[in-house]
Amino acid sequence: MQLTGAQALIKSLEREGVDTIFGLPGGAILPVYDPILDSSIRHILVRHEQGAGHMAEGYALATGKAGVAMVTSGPGATNIVTPIGNAHMDSTPLVVITGQVATAAIGSDAFQECDITGITMGITKHNFLIQSAHEIPRVVAAAFHLATTGRPGPVLIDLPKDVSQSTMEWWYPSSIEELDLPGYHPDVEIDPRAVAHAVELIGLSERPVLYVGGGALKSRANDALLAFAERTNIPVVTTLMARGAFPDSRPQHLGMPGMHGTYSAVTALQKSDLLIALGARFDDRVTGQLSSFATGAKVIHVDIDRAEFNKVRKADVTLQTNVALALLAFDEANATPLNLDVWWKEIRTWQERYPLAYDAPSDDGPLRPQYVIEAIARAAAPGTIVTSGVGQHQMWASQYWQFEEAGTWVNSGGAGTMGFGVPAAIGAKAGRPDRTVWCIDGDGCFQMTAQELVTARSEGIPIKVAILNNAYLGMVRQWQEMFYEERYSEVYLSADLPDYVKWAEAMGCVGLRASNLHEMHEVIARANEINDVPVVIDFRTDSAEKVFPMVASGSSNDEIMVHPSLRGSSR
Asked: For residue range 359-371, what is the model confidence (pLDDT) as tens digits?
């Protein structure tokens, strides 16, 4: 069967089970847009290529499948670099297809030419510049295999226009061997000696902690983690990228560690004698000052990517495998329940003395952002998916929303990409239309990608957006207040410019506003009644509110600052 390269690309995507593409057409990719008309794949037309990438990320994080984005050459390709870099940092499976100028024009500075494979070489798991139409099926199959196996990540396919217009005899790889990926062997045999050594260390420990990172979610280890933790009685902390991997409601869960983690999670890591790191990479936001991080702890490090071993913290045992398989191996090696009564008594004292705290909300405003999040969460349906931008609102969402299952927290971790929240929510809702999706956003983040609400409205994707409007770049303001003698340089945004209600309405959404507690409860209830169009709520929050606990950048975790209301008791 003779197909054009464009037809072969779409047919290959169908063979990979793709049901949704987020994209924006342009000259170099235009031939590929014609066969989409005859395809079962849904195409969601974005308003900016960055939105396409973040939507694909939200789709991937909510569904566990690779997200797919397609854009044109030149500025279309460079506009999606930020989502590619974001996905690379957070190990999110993406396949990004970019148009390219004709092969004969490559290197001539042709109109909208861009060396996107060169630009993204350091932030993709792999990238391809297709040379002939015959290659397309193999490249597509390889891209999905690479993106979703081993440590997941973004893969880019650059398709010259003349290749998409030329013809080929249809075929599709029937085995991994046909993908031509020499040296790529993501499946690794578990080392039984390492397992035995790890189980021995677990058995000898008196203050162990399960330090759970995003790799636990990527390997779908939540059930194995719950079983192992309950059997061994070991405390659990889940990083920003692992929220939902272990239910918040379980008494063994200490919350999130790190710069804005709970006191008990941060301090348990510091005082532990054994860290069982599961798909975690000892990020600087978790360790704080590295030289003082958990100095008395031995380390068992489980990760699918051996490049993570001893990169930041030297491990006593390394186990290269996915987290789920490691936990099953520990169980089979009879890792036994531990007597941790003394350890748990100490931890419970910290939890009682230093809980998450904020000042009580007043009836007449401004609103406490933490209280707003708790109110939305209380009224939300079970299994609601939450996305966020990056900043104070992200930390509060992670702290005050109770996550009970995997795939319900979608955020930008390693790259810290402002503007992630709205398009990620659209992607998550496109992938999981059965779920309610709330975006907890800041006014700064919202202004970066809010145009994608036009996409949501026109495509019938009814997300709900809560803007915690404090009229500032909140996290920057917090740092300027605490560390720059309140010299607020270029951080004020204005509460009223733009008018978020009118802006939402101009994009075809429902716009609501709340300035006090009565209005807050009313608009949340109203938002939950609207399920056919996107809803945007402008919550007027206190600009002076800060995120606590906090470990200042470069400081030791032992110097964690709790909320001022808790500072009277000794630590």
From this structure: 999 888 799 999 9
